[in-house]
């Protein structure tokens, strides 16, 4: 009897093991074979379609993953002191994304300036246009001249947030950062020539890497290609043929950019620390819990949670026991981070976001990833037949107005090739969608136009009211001051926080 029970048990275990192994093999094969045609991927003999199943989405350098969700935008603002009614409460959903852990610092900006000087030593205009306006510190009735001369470059200020940068300069930095991060990835992997070899070749200045141009196959050849380029599996390719990296390989990072206003406000509130079983248990007025600006913990009780102007004539507290300790800005990792792990989402410096400013109504926003500011552009082709992109003198693709709201037919596309690339009947500039710019009134009864950009967060020179993430102000995109900096964001491809994660 015992022997029979042993035989039956063994048979069941063997059958279960076989089924498990078959299931594992099936799942393994499923990754290498098309589920719809049965054709194998990554096979050089059947066409060579390469599908990478081993890529794991990860943030670029300096970024923190923000799990998206729904929240009431404008909901943390309990009073509207200016009676501007420009952040009406509305429930929206923000997709998961990445954002910088800290504000961009002076050291970060000096790296940017150094790169320009190294690569374009003869281009004085490019370097000058990238310089922050250090004169924002100058004040007729305040002795701020030392900051004019020392704030950006002195090593004692290297970890302080960069200021005096306009919205336009911040966007240029994001584009530069995208290209440098992707170039570094390719050189570290040996897909492009490594830095040492590049230096020995004494590469000519002005030959800068650009992500879009590289992905279009226009950056390759002797002196550029590394030893570890991916194999080229297309039919007819030579045995040891190599190719450039494609977007489908999952190696390169998405572009850095400024966060949208909705993303910034969502990340600043950090409500993830106040949720339980899908419900928000307590709301917030600031990036920390509580209705005040002082720390409620026993260890740091009474200490200020951010760098702001406490009252008129009081920037930092009394000597011997300073409150926030910041006479002007402070290092970008000062104070406690919020529940997303982000530093200084209130105070220190205001931060640019990507949105064009408008006073809001209930009709002029979307409830998923709300954003105002689109100017839809396409790449210009130098040769449409070979799909060669036109480049400017810095090696960046030239952008032209989008021609249509949707994919054109082949016939429409061919007809457009013979026309002026800058000519279009499509309304590609939708910054004023449902709320057009009043050009005749600008400078007379309004200071809002399509170049008015939102900044948020409050600064070292602002009162506590502006620390609320729902407050919003604006400035022209080419303007700057000593109270405004920025941090970068990045779109999350896929969703690392999705089902089953």
Automatic annotation (TrEMBL):
A Pfam family annotated for this UniProt entry: FGE-sulfatase
PROSITE patterns: PROKAR_LIPOPROTEIN (PS51257)
InterPro entries: CTDL_fold, Sulfatase_Mod_Factor_Kinase, SUMF_dom, SUMF_sf
Span of domain Sulfatase-modifying factor enzyme-like: 61-364
SUPFAM superfamilies cross-referenced by the UniProt entry: C-type lectin-like
Protein name: SUMF1/EgtB/PvdO family nonheme iron enzyme
Lineage, uppermost ranks: Bacteria, Pseudomonadati, Bacteroidota, Sphingobacteriia, Sphingobacteriales
């Amino acid at each position: 009897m015992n022997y029979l029970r042993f035989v039956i048990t063994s048979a069941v275990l063997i059958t279960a093991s076989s089924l498990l192994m078959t299931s594992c093999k099936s799942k393994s094969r499923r990754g290498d074979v098309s589920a719809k045609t049965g054709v194998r991927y990554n096979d050089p003999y059947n066409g060579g379609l390469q599908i990478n199943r081993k890529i794991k989405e990860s943030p670029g350098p300096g970024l923190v993953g923000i799990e998206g969700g729904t929240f009431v935008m404008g909901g943390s603002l309990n009073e509207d002191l200016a009676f501007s009614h420009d952040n009406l409460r509305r429930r929206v959903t923000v997709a998961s994304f990445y954002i910088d852990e800290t504000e961009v610092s002076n050291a970060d900006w000096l790296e940017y300036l150094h790169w320009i000087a190294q690569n374009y030593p003869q281009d004085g205009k490019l370097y000058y246009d990238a310089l922050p306006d250090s004169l924002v510190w100058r004040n007729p009735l305040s002795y701020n001249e030392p900051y004019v001369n020392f704030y950006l470059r002195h090593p004692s200020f290297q970890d302080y947030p960069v200021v005096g940068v306009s919205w336009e300069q911040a966007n240029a930095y994001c584009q530069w950062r995208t290209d440098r991060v992707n170039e570094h990835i390719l050189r570290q992997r040996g897909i492009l020539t490594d830095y040492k070899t590049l230096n020995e070749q004494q590469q000519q200045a002005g030959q800068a890497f650009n992500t879009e141009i590289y992905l279009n196959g226009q950056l390759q050849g002797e002196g550029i290609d590394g030893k570890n380029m991916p194999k080229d599996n297309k039919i007819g390719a030579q045995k040891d043929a190599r190719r450039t990296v494609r977007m489908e390989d999952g190696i390169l990072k998405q572009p850095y950019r400024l966060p949208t206003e909705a993303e910034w406000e969502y990340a600043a509130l950090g409500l993830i620390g106040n949720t339980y079983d899908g419900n928000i248990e307590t709301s917030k007025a600031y990036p920390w819990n509580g209705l005040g600006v002082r720390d409620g913990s026993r260890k740091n009780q009474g200490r200020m949670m951010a760098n702001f102007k406490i009252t008129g004539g009081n920037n930092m507290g009394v000597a011997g026991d300073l409150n926030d300790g910041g006479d002007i800005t402070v290092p970008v990792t000062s104070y406690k981070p919020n529940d997303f792990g982000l530093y200084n989402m209130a105070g220190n410096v205001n931060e640019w976001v990507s949105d064009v400013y408008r006073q809001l109504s209930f009709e002029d926003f979307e409830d998923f990833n709300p954003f105002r500011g689109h100017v839809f552009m396409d790449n210009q082709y130098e040769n449409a037949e070979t799909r060669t992109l036109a480049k400017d003198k810095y090696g960046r693709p030239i952008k032209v107005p989008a021609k249509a709201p949707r994919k054109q037919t082949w016939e429409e596309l061919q007809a457009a090739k013979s026309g002026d690339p800058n000519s279009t009947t499509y309304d590609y500039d939708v910054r004023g969608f449902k709320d057009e710019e009043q050009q005749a009134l600008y400078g007379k009864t309004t200071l809002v136009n399509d170049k008015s950009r939102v900044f948020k967060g409050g600064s070292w020179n602002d009162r506590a009211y502006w620390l609320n993430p729902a407050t919003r102000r604006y400035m022209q995109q080419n303007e700057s001051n000593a109270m405004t900096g920025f941090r970068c964001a990045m779109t999350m491809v896929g969703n690392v926080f999705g089902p089953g994660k």
